[in-house]
Write a structure and sequence with these properties.
The chain has 51 residues and is an all-alpha fold. It is 94% helix and 0% strand. It has one helix at residues 2-49. The longest helix is centred in the middle third of the chain and has 48 residues, at 2-49.
C-alpha cells in the first residue's frame, strides 16, 4: 500500500514537472518569436526611414 502510494506520487510529480517544463518552453518560444518579430519590425522601419 505504502509503496503504491509513493509510486503514484512519483509519477504525479514527474508529470507535473513535465507540464511545467512544457509550458515554460512554450512561453520562452513565444517570447523569442515576439522578439524576432519586433527586431524584424525595427529593421523594416529603419529601411523605410533610411532607404
Amino acid at each position: 500500500m505504502f509503496k503504491m502510494l509513493i509510486r503514484i506520487l512519483n509519477t504525479l510529480r514527474s508529470r507535473i514537472w513535465d507540464m511545467v517544463f512544457f509550458l515554460f518552453s512554450d512561453y520562452s518560444n513565444l517570447q523569442l518569436v515576439r522578439m524576432g518579430i519586433a527586431q524584424k519590425a525595427i529593421i523594416f522601419n529603419q529601411r523605410t526611414v533610411y532607404p
